[in-house]
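Milestone 3.1: sequence recovery, worked example.
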């Protein structure tokens, strides 16, 4: 059996950043396992700009951003295997993988970093009535067809869901000569970044219909028309509000799901809200020595935050390999999201192990205007920051100080909530 100090599952932006950080922290024996035929992950098909403003202080395309990290991996001579599928991770960190050159093989890892990314919610999970004709694609599949394969999915397009990929594909299809008739969103707010709504829809005159969903798909061989209708507060279509659009293509952009089948089979505890692992302040999962970062942990809005988080996972995995599990007699402090906040990452923290500053990321469950992000240490409010607007499509964060936490030696719970005053 081969042995590596750190095995990273996934060679996308999270896996690359984690590998570079682990090497910089002094770990030499690192292996990246990537199932695709090249490193870079989903960024290879994201040819639009807007990446890297936080990390590199300049605007890059997806492939440019990925290459900055790939070059560091190449320069550091970090090992990687492409076209390699990880089949299983055991509780004692034995990674089983396979490819066509090595067949099936096992690796004993000192630490494992999960960086598998996320996948799109498929049509089967959406319960859309109608036939099953050709011409229905997830937005990410359409993006790959246009940007990498060089194929046009269609000429007259309806998009269901206003996630960032759907918004970006509305612009991309328009630039390639297609007519995007409408973007329909089931919820009363968009799931994408505000800047994407402006740059991808408003600038091209593409209508966004909130609280609408697809109620019928016509066409036997190929989509010929789609009917959308307004939905009420119960999310059920309202009779009489139907609108029919002739089209040959329906793109689905209805949310992303962290790719956690491997985590689940390994016995990692998952958060029911994010569908990602429950992690502590070190981004360590419920299995000692198994860390998680990027979109496999929770879906991010900016890749810069993925890289930032992955850097921490790489550093902490390196520390684990050198020092082993840090024993603590203290009960970890629980982080709780409530009253408008949906979840927190991390879910627990131990002040003995945390850095001087800890970034806690979370998302809100609705649109909030002129509200406050409040942080409570048990029943005492210690932070109360005003935000002009908060939306589910954009991640929020609070920064906890170790020095401040040390003033509360018996602290049991940190609660993050949204308050009006």
């Amino acid at each position: 059996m081969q042995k590596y100090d750190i095995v990273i599952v996934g060679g996308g932006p999270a896996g690359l950043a984690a590998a570079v950080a682990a090497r910089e922290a002094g770990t030499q024996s690192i292996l990246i396992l990537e199932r695709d035929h090249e490193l870079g992950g989903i960024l290879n098909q994201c040819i639009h700009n807007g990446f890297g403003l936080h990390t590199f202080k300049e605007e890059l395309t997806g492939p440019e951003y990925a290459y900055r990290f790939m070059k560091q991996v190449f320069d550091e001579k970090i090992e990687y295997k492409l076209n390699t599928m990880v089949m299983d991770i055991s509780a004692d960190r034995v990674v089983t993988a396979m490819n066509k050159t090595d067949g099936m093989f096992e690796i004993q890892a000192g630490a494992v970093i999960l960086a598998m990314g996320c996948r799109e919610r498929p049509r089967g999970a959406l319960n859309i009535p109608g036939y099953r004709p050709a011409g229905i694609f997830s937005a990410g599949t359409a993006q790959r067809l246009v940007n990498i394969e060089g194929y046009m999915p269609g000429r007259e397009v309806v998009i269901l869901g206003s996630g960032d990929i759907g918004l970006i594909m509305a612009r991309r299809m328009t630039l390639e000569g297609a007519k995007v008739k409408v973007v329909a969103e089931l919820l009363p707010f968009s799931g994408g970044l505000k800047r994407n709504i402006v740059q991808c829809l408003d600038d091209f005159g593409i209508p966004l219909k909130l609280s609408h969903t697809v109620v019928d798909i016509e066409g036997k061989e190929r989509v010929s028309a789609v009917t959308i209708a307004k939905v009420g507060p119960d999310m059920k279509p309202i009779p009489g509000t139907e609108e029919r659009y002739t089209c040959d293509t329906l793109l689905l952009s209805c949310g992303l799901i962290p790719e956690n089948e491997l985590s689940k089979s390994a016995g990692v505890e998952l958060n029911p809200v994010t569908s990602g692992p429950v992690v502590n302040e070190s981004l360590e999962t419920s299995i000692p020595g198994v860390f998680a970062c990027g979109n496999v942990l929770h879906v991010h809005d900016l890749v810069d935050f993925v890289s930032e988080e992955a850097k921490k996972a790489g550093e902490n995995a390196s520390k684990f390999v050198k020092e082993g599990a840090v024993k603590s007699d203290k009960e970890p402090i629980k982080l709780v999201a409530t009253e408008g906040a949906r979840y927190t990452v991390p879910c627990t923290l131990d002040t003995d192990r945390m850095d001087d500053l800890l970034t806690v990321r979370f998302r809100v469950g609705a649109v909030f205007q002129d509200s406050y992000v409040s942080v409570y240490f048990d029943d005492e409010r210690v932070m109360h920051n005003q935000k002009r607007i908060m939306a589910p499509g954009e991640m929020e964060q609070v920064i906890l100080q170790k020095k401040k936490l040390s003033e509360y030696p018996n602290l049991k719970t940190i609660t993050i909530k949204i308050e009006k005053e």
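Residues 303-323 form the longest helix (21 residues). The chain has a mean pLDDT of 93.
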